[in-house]
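Budget justification note: compute hours in this period were largely spent on complex prediction jobs such as the one shown. Inputs:
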Amino acid sequence: MSEGVVTAGRLVAIIGNPNVGKTTLFNRLAGRSQKTSNFPGTTQEAHVARVSTSAGELTLVDLPGIYGLRLDTSESGIARGVLEGSIAPEGFRAAPADAVLLVLDATNLLRNLSLAGEALRAGTPTVVALTMLDDARRRGIEVNIEVLSRRLGCEVVAVDAKRGEIGNGLLGRLTMAATRGTKEAVGDDLHAWAEEVYAEAAAARSGRSDDDRITDRLDSAFTHPLLGVIVFATVMTGLFWAIFRLATYPMDWIDALFAAMGGWVADLLPEGALQEMLVDGVIAGVGATVIFLPQIVLLFFLLSLLEHSGYLARAAFVIDRLLRPFGLPGHSFVPLLSGHACALPGIMAARAVPDPRERLATVLVLPFMSCTARIPVYVLLTTLLFPGKPGLQALAFAGCYGLGIVAGLLSALIARRTILRGPARPMALELPSYRLPSLGYALKTAAARGWTFLRKAGTVILAMSIVLWWLGTYPQSGPSPAAEELRATAATVDGPRGEELTEEADRLDSAYRAERTALGRIGGVVQPVFEPIGADRKLTIGILASFAAREVFVSTMAVQILGGEDADLEAGGVREALATAERDDGSPIFTRATSWSMLVFFVLAMQCLPTLAVTAREAGGVKWALLQLGWMTGLAYALALIVYQSIRAAGIA
Amino acid sequence: MTEHVEIKPVPVPLTRMTRGQRGVLREATIEGSDGEMLVAMGLRPNCRLRVCRSGQTCIVAVETGCGGGCRIGLSRHLADRVMVEPIAAGR
Amino acid sequence: MPLGDWQFWAVSLAGLAAVILLVRALRPTKPKNQRATLTINRETRR
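Corresponding output:
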């Protein structure tokens, strides 16, 4: 065998401009063997695959799309690092790339050649994959592959990203690639070299093609200052309608599945602490989270379709102008919008924001957007505030969303003026050609995101549910003396009155027990902190519990007030009970002032541990998560305080 | 590649070009990484542009410079600094 | 505390494991040495 053949584990870096079909090609080469991780310390996703060919093993690393290797962007830095061997995806050993798969787009070959020149200069054995040849032909561009191959000094393989067998041929060539390319031939002037090669290897017909005309028409609608915003609003409304509407069915199935699982475990295990932990802790907690999986998968599926159709770049172009005053780029819009479903996928979607400071600002303010986990709390408090007035309820409900958005945008502005100060990266956005998006690719993306969500949030949520359950269960105490007395009285009374007394005793008991658990004691200690915003001991426990996940608030309050673990908000009786619930001193819990204050607090406070975990991971440090927690909760507290004290001062009961 | 075009003597900022107008990029005084980025995206000296959307934020199709017809959306900040010599219509 | 109940010990052990998992999950992996290398490369380049 020739000297170029390298043994197992040959590292191949895949390099190319954005939108050249690089990822599609990677997916086809990698098959099912690919893994998604991060490049360490960055928000940049790394796709890695191990494939074996007849000639040996290859590790393929799909690098982010770049316009040049020397540019001052995080993507370029990563590409350089992988080529030089100073950066490797998490879980992989850093080593200089053994070969480069250079993906060039035939429709924009001249520009692509500049990147090719830079890559060839590095002197790594290179194979070129030429994509979009069909599109190029339609535009009147003919590329002579032989000439191109001769000028680049390496093999050039024509690749149709959608059809045909390219896998083994290309992989085989990568395993064998030994040619170091025309390192010396690429002169000092990269662009002059690129133009020279282009003039020799490609012939282009001048003038607008049909494709151009169609693109012009679509662009004039999609990027119009007014019409563009209307189109965008329509598309996004459709997107979210689909997410909320279509996701209902699988969400119901998941709900039913977890309910059934709870039933099985309860039947299977004898009564005791273990059964309780599994049913009330693990299954209830994990189930409450996994229920959001359909929304997340659907969101990323539809976003992938929009992105690959070429529309999303146009949307970013239109929205850029609206977000700029707040120091955020157009790219932030989709993550911020996704945050209304759940902050976790929103933060993951923020990886699409190119500038690191703007990306960080987006991640930091994203949890201000009202996620679906807040909905149960909003429903509870708005109905308590405006009983029997659905119009006002809806208004208050919408107001919560508005408050979150305003707080988020203003916080972004403050962050960009202080800790994340830096020049706004002026928008230079490529608007790729419109294409028919690939369903398969969208499915793959959605599945990968869904899996990431399940794995990352799943482990954290699981652990948290167990911890929370434990703290809410131990230490256990005996029956409350007051309840014992009541029971004794109940035993002497017959009929419905006796039953009522027994029920009352049960309620007293569980409240008594809840007070004495670790969580209850913490609530008692922390209560003075939340007193100025109108919270009593029970509300304090509700707030504390909801720092793990907001939706816990409603069930925690119900459990404390009713004592029944299976308290169901849908039943009118429970709502009634919550509305008339009393503090330890006998005054009502949900006064007008307290309800408003709680509503403001829940809109703004950072009460989601999984989000904090993902922020720490995505932003590259716990300090960012702590900042998010401190800022959001501080703001929530301050505003809730103002609201509570003003309403009280105004003398409204 | 040489261009034989009728050239008006004074280059104008891209923001002053109208929709559908073509021009040759003569100078872009954008410093630092943003300038490098634009060059890498295909906006090179002497490349021919067609304005697809004019105004505060504009879109140009880079007719030569990319190799095909890549389109780039530019914020006003950048477009103001890209100086273009308009080409007479009809070409 | 129901110290005599073996199930209590089982769930407490699970709770401890959960706390350890949480602490590990919340602590991001920081590849300090690799970042440093990148900076050096940048400087070498310039």
